[in-house]
Automatic annotation (TrEMBL):
Molecular function terms, GO-annotated: methyltransferase activity
Protein name (database record): Methyltransferase domain-containing protein
InterPro entries, A to Z: Diverse_substrate_MTase, Methyltransf_25, SAM-dependent_MTases_sf
PANTHER family found in the cross-reference section: METHYLTRANSF_11 DOMAIN-CONTAINING PROTEIN, METHYLTRANSFERASE TYPE 11 DOMAIN-CONTAINING PROTEIN
Pfam families membership: Methyltransf_25 (PF13649)
Keyword annotations from UniProtKB, A to Z: Methyltransferase, Transferase
GO BP annotation list: methylation
Domain Methyltransferase positions: 32-130
Length: 256
């Protein structure tokens, strides 16, 4: 799963990085935390903009691949830490008593976390004007408003025997809920922005994106994947490429 994540998960537009840098006034002296960092899709492009990045994830394979990607890109100011959102208080102890983080970014991972507790745990770790950026990197492949996405969803629902409705934190109601939780935790100037762009996917990118999102215990085994992929290919209404409109949503809040 981590291998598919590293290869097929899309990166983030420069406009998103520019927005968080301007909002938090990030400088080359700052440190940021990428919580649920995966294989480094956010941590690595953020690294040149700050003094250091802490990439934190509960999956060792994700961190291994992030470390390898950092080496290939010549990133020397990133450290990779095994941990989940529930380990943030322990991380705060390691960072010391003085608030030092300029930003914590959570990209496409907050739906796995206890966000109300997390926001409260993070608050004392930030320097003045620091805070949280929650980034949703586009609607899941099977929930988009296109013919091929609807066909994909129908095929997956039949295969797994369940209705697929989870938005993975990308829906409008998710952003409203997260924004209210930020305010309740004590963050101010809570606001959001969206960066949109068109894209086209190959069939292999569709399959790779699916494999990166399917829970490990449900991921088809290697011997089952040819049949699984054939069924997907047959269900899709036309040949590649498959168009999509990617809407990257950024929700931010900061300390006073």
């Amino acid at each position: 799963m981590a291998e598919y994540y590293a290869k097929f998960r899309r990166g983030y537009p420069e406009q998103v990085l520019d927005f968080v840098q301007d909002y938090f006034l990030l400088t080359p002296e700052d440190s940021v935390l990428d919580l649920g960092c995966g294989t480094g899709q956010l941590a690595l492009p953020l690294a040149p903009r700050v003094r250091s990045v802490i990439g934190m994830d509960p999956e060792p394979d994700m961190l291994r691949l992030a470390h390898e990607a950092a080496g290939r890109r010549g990133v020397r100011n990133a450290v990779w830490v095994l941990g989940a959102d529930t380990d943030v208080p322990a991380l705060g102890t390691l960072l010391g008593h003085e608030p030092s983080l300029a930003m914590t970014v959570v990209g496409q991972a907050l739906h796995w976390m206890r966000h109300e507790e997390l926001f409260r745990d993070l608050l004392p770790l930030f320097r003045a004007g620091g805070g949280i950026a929650v980034i949703a990197n586009g609607t899941p492949l099977w929930l988009q408003d296109t013919a091929w996405s609807r066909a994909l969803r129908s095929c997956l629902e039949q295969h797994f025997g369940t209705e697929l409705t989870a938005s993975c934190g990308t829906a409008d109601q998710d952003r409203i809920r997260y924004a209210q939780a930020l305010e309740d935790a004590g963050f101010s100037d809570v606001r959001s922005t969206t960066v949109s762009y068109p894209d086209e996917l190959t069939f292999q990118q569709v399959i790779g994106g699916l494999y990166s999102a399917i829970p490990a215990e449900q991921l088809p085994g290697a011997e089952q994947r040819p049949a699984f992929e054939y069924g997907i290919r047959k269900a899709l209404p036309h040949a590649e490429p498959f168009p999509e409109q990617v809407h990257v949503s950024v929700l931010v809040g900061r300390t006073v």
